[in-house]
Amino acid sequence: MKFLNNVQPQHDLTFSDVFMVPSLSDIESRMDVDLTPPDGVGTTFPVVVSNMNAVSGKRMAESVARRGGIAILPQDMPDNELKKTIDYVKSRHKIYETPLTLTTKDRLQDALNIIHKRAHGAIVIVDAQKRPIGIFTEKDAVNKDRFAQITDAMTPSVFSFIEGTSLSEMHNELSERNLRFAPIVDKQGVLIGAITKKGTVRSKMFTPALDAKGRLMIGAAIGINGDVTAKAERALELGVDVLVVDTAHGHQKKMIQAIKAVKAINPKVPIVAGNIVTAKAAKDLLDAGADILKVGIGPGAMCTTRMMTGVGRPQFSALLECAEVAHKAGKQIWSDGGVRYPRDVALALAAGSASVIIGSWLAGTHESVSDTFTDENGRLYKVNFGMASKRAVNNRTSNQDKFIIAQKELFQEGISESRMYIDPEHPGVEDIIDQIAVGLRSSMTYAGARSISEFHKKAIIGVQSNAGFVEGKALDSSWS
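The chain above was modelled as a monomer; its predicted structure follows.
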């Protein structure tokens, strides 16, 4: 990456401080751009779901992996839940979505309790042999008693596709029938998945992130306290495809010891470590054995570290400095925090990131872990919280001495409750992935870069005022 006119900024920069100028490009189509991250993880799209308790879980992990990214499970997930989640994701179909299902014994209220668990907005009603016999959507609940049998509210006629039907054929058939959702069944008529009209297009445009056995990929985080070796061995035994050694202050001796302990296991998967923001920290963690560095302190939407401690660094500059060290060593970095628009993802990659970690932006989607609530105006939202907040600390230390818990609560550096509203136009994680893919493909085309590695070299960045940033925002109403 180069600065416009070779003018080096005299202060640190974040994403809104910079812009990218177009260069001479010979790329004729945005689809000629390869979005495969150059970090060796095995993903095909440069998005990583942050290991936040309110965001990353089984539904998020399978949906993102199906589109080429990877989710990192939280470090404080109980062992039985960790195993259950990894096994679940590994068992999911690489193309077909996992449908929500109920049986004829269930009631309307049961359907309303789960309808917002997935963005496709439909529930498949199955018989005892798991064959589809009806479809339920929210509109079917209008003027119906909440305790009525689901069979009294569902649409009884079900159009299904047989497993193996081509994506284009499914898309055309759904269009002709004016449907947006359909179950997928095997030759015996047993439900095995679901597809949406948008999903047929996405499955053609995105390549799923698969492990060596052809299963969807997933990662997990571990902390630097306790028996690090045992935790790492357990995660690897359960089949994680990337291991994140995670703590708020990554440049400390305990982190270096933890990386060495994990590396001594001789894992066959990449080791990600952080969080850091300086060249010295990057060198020390790489020397300890890290394969990928997690860069970012304080830019996250749920993080209060900078306001509480004054510690942190504007994200764009942190990425530039750490990426330079990592690339010289033949390693890569992940940007962690501060992305709010597709432009931020593009700029993070331009600054040297191989992939971009996203948390709060995905919290307000149907696939995030949190339950869905309705506010006083009828808007749907989910509750998000920071991983250094009082709420997160309480979750992690619930089995410890009450006095110790009370002490730790004083050192919170995150928001314990924030409403993340579900955008009715883009309610699912795949909608956000679509936006990122569109913006990123165009951004790389403007730079004349066919790959992320080329983007690292070819992007030309300028520095702007706040007025310049505001000028770039579209208006949804007139300015008079």
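The longest helix spans residues 429-447.
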